[in-house]
Amino acid sequence: MASSLLRLPSLLAPAPALLCRGGRRLYAAPSAAVARLSAAATSTGASAAAPAQAEGARGGDREGQVTPRSADFNAWYTDVIAAAELADYGPVRGTMVIRPYGYAIWEAIQDYLNVKFKETGHSNMYFPQEASHVEGFSPELALVTIGGGKELEEKLVVRPTSETIVNHMFTKWIQSYRDLPLMINQWANVTRWEMRTKPFIRTLEFLWQEGHTAHATLEEAEEEAMQMIDVYTKFSYEEAAIPVIPGRKSKVETFAGANRTYTIEAMMGDRKALQAGTSHNLGQNFSRAFETQFMDENGQLEHVWQTSWAISTRFVGGIIMTHGDDAGLMLPPRIAPIQVVIVPIWKKGDEKGVVMEAVASVQNTLKEAGIRVKVDDSELRTPGWKFNHYEMKGVPIRIEIGPRDVKNRSVVISRRDVPGKQGKEFGVSMEPSIMVDHIKGRLEEIQASLLQKAITFRDSNIVDVSSYGELKEAIAEGKWARGPWSASDADELKVKEETSATIRCFPFEQPEGTKKCFMTGNPADEVAIFAKSY
Amino acid sequence: MASSLLRLPSLLAPAPALLCRGGRRLYAAPSAAVARLSAAATSTGASAAAPAQAEGARGGDREGQVTPRSADFNAWYTDVIAAAELADYGPVRGTMVIRPYGYAIWEAIQDYLNVKFKETGHSNMYFPQEASHVEGFSPELALVTIGGGKELEEKLVVRPTSETIVNHMFTKWIQSYRDLPLMINQWANVTRWEMRTKPFIRTLEFLWQEGHTAHATLEEAEEEAMQMIDVYTKFSYEEAAIPVIPGRKSKVETFAGANRTYTIEAMMGDRKALQAGTSHNLGQNFSRAFETQFMDENGQLEHVWQTSWAISTRFVGGIIMTHGDDAGLMLPPRIAPIQVVIVPIWKKGDEKGVVMEAVASVQNTLKEAGIRVKVDDSELRTPGWKFNHYEMKGVPIRIEIGPRDVKNRSVVISRRDVPGKQGKEFGVSMEPSIMVDHIKGRLEEIQASLLQKAITFRDSNIVDVSSYGELKEAIAEGKWARGPWSASDADELKVKEETSATIRCFPFEQPEGTKKCFMTGNPADEVAIFAKSY
């Protein structure tokens, strides 16, 4: 299994001299040519030749070579993942390696949700991933048939989700109403045999959390399912700056084991919908199948009422496709692994000392204020290379410090979300209290601005329709269609066949007044949102 | 797959009246009979009949029915795991469900190590668990041969460890000395097809972290391997209160892919050794096999130097077997999910209000001081049941608050590690600053005391030997033998065959002076430690 990678002698020369600066502007806006040069210096012959979407694309070698988003959204997406070093392809088809920077985004998601899950009364635990084969779930399964060198008598399934083993154990653990509610969560890997894969969005194996709860009443289970979709919604808006639309899935789109499936639907930059999280009210479907019963306060045996809910590494793909632009990734400050990058700039050796001293001081000030700050003081890369690099990585704020800044006791700040001169501020004081306030304020502005931009984009791409013709038109334009719906499952499938759009959800937020189904003309209780999706 | 559990109507009556107290002593030391009664009230017929080690043993049903440690250490171990609700058996042979309380201990391990790993320059990431089959690692592997309903052309291995895929990716990512050192870690599940399993210690699947690093020089790799075994050693002593002995494995016991394996060896309560963590200097073994090369500063292509290091959920088993006693688990405060449990005690309804008010106040005080505190205010259990329950769970400190305590503005404190009256303190002031200092002081004392007890136990069970006869005698007594060793691999295997003891390590801490190998009489540079092990 030794690598068959084409290995050309590297073109790397040690430590190209730091980019000269005649004036501040020279390094402030490094030309595309400089960017391409730095990129070429780190790329191998093999990767330079590889097509953007090929499995062989090399991470981290493609800086400055990202396909424009408007030209080819899919190519842009995989280019950004490679160039920002978020993930790479594993050797087995459909598998993905999550690289440190991509994993750090997942850790930010975990850190937030883990706290919320505990606050709402859930405990983490861990179920084994190998379980007996359950019939009827086959097309997506990976099966272990050989263990310890021997053919197994009973094939084992590699976990695609855990409802079956959860209920097996719940049946052991739950006897009485005193054992309820039982509310647990696990962070785990799951495997589903997907034919068409896409990094983060759909891979053979992915990481997720799956919550599983058991309750004494239907009402409690319903409340829990709603509570968790609400946790996901808040996370999406407040942390990821993704204005998801929470709602209920149609019967056709509801999880097979659930009575109701709630979802958060996000609009990606290409206006496709991404199902970014789900929460199921499972009713008594699993408890009846597994005889998960409890003795109620009156001594009656009852089946428990259950929920399950999940968010996965797919959400990282959602962040990329919501905020990214032609320069690469753009991260909301609250989930950015690096919120501020400091790039020291100096030309002559005698400048280095004072610049680095100021850099260290600013770094400490920000770090102590709880800001996630990184200094890139490598002398192996030019400032221009670094500017591109951290823009590609979506770092919200860049601080530049050169000898003139040190003299003025100030720094230069650039916002990732506002390109060019408009995003730059000169002469921001180094005085700790002023600078900390300033940076914190800017981070909040960026956070709010990313959300607002995404809301505006979303709302300008949802069309209210009152006929099937209008729906077809909206979908053909790549938009989402929202309209009153009370038609049949057959009608829903017909829409899918004819337009490739599905009902993403009946949003919780519904317009007032009486409604007429745009398909049948019958009265409708709710509007539904239709869209093409990932 | 519906459960075939024997389900008898539960004997549970709602809310047995709170245990009466004629005087404080009545509830202070609940009799074994009370304990057994409470236990009986929660056990099902099925579990009461099940032998201790049987796979069918029911978690949480066996309170008060733990086999004495001295009578049968193995039965005690599995009893404690069930009664303290640490883990349960999964439906597939050899699999384990880690229950919330057991998982919380693992989370404490993760929280500490994760910070240390990052402080020492490592980033987390994630490699896929399905990889191509590598020959020669078969006996322990689980193989996926069917995916998506079809026989796979190439069998896939479910990750037993990740050196191969790590090097596959390192070869892609590393071109230049500028890409080094590359230092990563992943928290993951691994699967090994074990024939004889034991909860936490050896299961089909377990959780671990695996660190993988690549360096430009042998010296750097060696330094890294040593640094990480040092991190593990500090964690063991300072957090888990386990006085591991760090050292180097013999050639026979070194990981097949490593030049050197460092280990931490812990003495369990039955005096068997547990290998609790390892760190490997892999040299260039993997980099040569996978052609993982870098261009050095002089333009020369070199193979990288690597390390890998791991700690797993096995460590939880080590904590149980180091500190536990006949009353159950005993947790060092620093890694205890609950450091203090508060049990309210009241008899008459009109006492409840004042007691619960004081309980809430004490709880808040401790919580604000950063102490992990739990109140068990359930009216479904008696104080006596609760005392047993949290002793079984190894909670370091119990606080009792009754009406008389409220009147005196004081509480009663019991230490888990000091049984009976000696471990109790009456009249500890509720005044926040006094109480917080007092509890913090006690937690530190308990932490130090558990470590000291384990050190004393360890040291009184290591025998210095100067002949093979003395070694045989020490091993036959169940002890560890330490003696100068420079004999052959064949001699080492002979010792193993004849005594079942292996070289656990050449400890880093070596006695001064010249030494003679106890087996051959030849000069020896080092002493080795021999012991039977898990």
From TrEMBL, chains A, B:
GO terms for biological process: prolyl-tRNA aminoacylation. Residues 48-68 are annotated as: Disordered. It is an enzyme of class 6 (ligase). SMART domains: ProRS-C_1 (SM00946). Keywords: Aminoacyl-tRNA synthetase, ATP-binding, Ligase, Nucleotide-binding. It comes from the Eukaryota. The keyword Aminoacyl-tRNA synthetase applies. It holds the Pfam family HGTP_anticodon. This is proline--tRNA ligase. It catalyses: tRNA(Pro) + L-proline + ATP = L-prolyl-tRNA(Pro) + AMP + diphosphate. GO terms for molecular function: ATP binding; proline-tRNA ligase activity. InterPro entries: aa-tRNA-synt_IIb, aa-tRNA-synth_II, aa-tRNA-synth_II/BPL/LPL, Anticodon-bd, Anticodon-bd_dom_sf, Pro-tRNA-ligase_IIa_arc-type, Pro-tRNA_ligase_II_C, Pro-tRNA_synth_II. Its EC number is 6.1.1.15. GO terms for cellular component: cytoplasm. Residues 93-332 form the Aminoacyl-transfer RNA synthetases class-II family profile domain. The keyword Cell inner membrane does not apply. The lineage of its organism: Eukaryota, Viridiplantae, Streptophyta, Embryophyta, Tracheophyta.
